[in-house]
């Protein structure tokens, strides 16, 4: 018999609006859902970036995989007093990242392209502009899939590590217990053990989004109870709902 689920900790920032499927889930099943990022990003200084000998003005296009990538790309340009040419093309993995560029550039005057959510969606657009020299701003811990896809398609790109992913301080959670912990990256699992080296799973259920996160859970010697995306549950909230329905009967 499954233990009931009354509380869930999602290891991501709290949604910016009330229109989140997590809130719908909390209401539907009367469960407490809290949000707490287990990781955060820190900028890499212009001084350290210069050591990589990457000259931003050598590039004609930028591939932006997140808002963090956009923030740090324009930050490093500002710190290094680099003027980004108006002719620069921006390829964003999602529409929301593309619209976020309005914070930095006059949107309607720029060449901005976007995919649906992944590098594969964006690939058709990138291939149409394969003569460009692409810069990919990223964190020190990144998905290899992005670079493997670019290489497989013969794209001329350079990786620029301009920020790093670090474990957040979770010491205030030391005596707090949740029925379910929800992870979205291997870095989240690393952070869990960095903060709580003696962590024992006991009755805590672990949920993981994505195959690399699921593998990190297993590699850490933990039991994986809830996984997404799977055919029956393409989103994490759907996977949680299906699990809660069974557990809370």
Could you provide a short overview of the structure?
With 249 residues, this protein is an alpha/beta fold. Helices cover 33% and strands 22% of the residues. The chain has nine helices and eleven strands.
Order of helices and strands: EHEEHEHEHEHEHEEHEHEH
Number of helices: 9
Summing up helix and strand content along with how strands pair, one would put the structural category as alpha/beta
Helix content: 25-40%
List the quaternary state of the chains: single chain
Radius of gyration: 20 Å
**Beta-strand percent range:** 15-25%
* Unreliable runs: none
CATH architecture of the largest domain: 3-Layer(aba) Sandwich
Structural domains: how many: 2
Q: Strand sequence of the main sheet, in spatial order? A: 3-8-7-4-5-6
First-residue to last-residue Cα separation: 10 Å
What's the count of strands?
11
What is the CATH topology of the largest domain?
Rossmann fold
Rounded mean pLDDT is: 93
At the first level of CATH, what is the class of the largest domain? Alpha Beta
Write structural notes for this entry.
With 249 residues, the chain is of the alpha/beta class. The chain folds into 2 domains: 7-38 and 176-247, Rossmann fold; 42-165, Rossmann fold (3-Layer(aba) Sandwich), CATH 3.40.50.10090. Helices cover 33% and strands 22% of the residues. It has 9 helices and 11 strands. It has helices spanning 21-29, 46-50, 67-79, 95-100, 119-128, 144-152, 186-195, 211-219, 236-247, and strands spanning 7-10, 32-35, 39-43, 61-64, 89-92, 111-114, 134-139, 157-167, 180-183, 205-209, 226-228. The strands form 2 sheets. It has a 6-stranded mixed sheet with strand order 3-8-7-4-5-6. Strands 2-1-9-10-11 form a 5-stranded parallel sheet, sandwiched between helices. Helix 1 links the parallel strand 1 and strand 2 (32-35). Helix 1 runs parallel beside helix 9 and helix 7 runs parallel beside helix 8. The radius of gyration is 20 Å and the shape is elongated. The N and C termini lie close together (10 Å). 29% of the residues are buried. The model has no long low-confidence stretch (mean pLDDT 93).
């Amino acid at each position: 018999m499954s233990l009931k689920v009354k509380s869930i900790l999602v290891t991501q920032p709290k949604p910016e609006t009330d229109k989140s499927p997590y809130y719908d889930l909390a209401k539907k099943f009367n469960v407490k859902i809290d949000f707490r990022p287990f990781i955060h990003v820190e900028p890499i200084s212009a001084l350290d970036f210069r050591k990589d000998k990457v000259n931003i003005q050598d590039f004609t296009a930028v591939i932006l995989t997140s808002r963090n990538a956009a923030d740090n790309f324009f930050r490093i340009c500002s710190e290094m007093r680099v003027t980004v040419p108006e002719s620069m093309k921006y390829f964003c993995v999602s529409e929301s990242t593309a619209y976020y560029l309005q914070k930095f550039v006059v949107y309607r005057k720029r060449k901005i392209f976007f995919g649906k959510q992944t590098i594969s969606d964006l690939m058709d657009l990138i291939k149409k502009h394969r003569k460009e020299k692409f810069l990919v701003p990223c964190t020190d811990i990144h998905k290899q899939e992005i670079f493997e896809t670019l290489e497989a398609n013969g794209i001329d790109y350079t990786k620029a590590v301009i920020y790093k992913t670090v474990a957040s301080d979770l010491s205030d959670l030391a005596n707090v217990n949740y029925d379910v912990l929800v992870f979205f990256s291997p870095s989240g699992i690393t952070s869990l053990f960095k903060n709580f080296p003696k962590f024992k799973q006991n009755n805590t259920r672990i949920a993981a989004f994505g195959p690399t996160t699921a593998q990190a859970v297993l590699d850490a010697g933990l039991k994986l109870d809830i996984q997404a995306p799977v055919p029956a549950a393409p989103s994490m909230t759907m996977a949680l709902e299906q699990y809660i329905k069974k557990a809370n009967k």
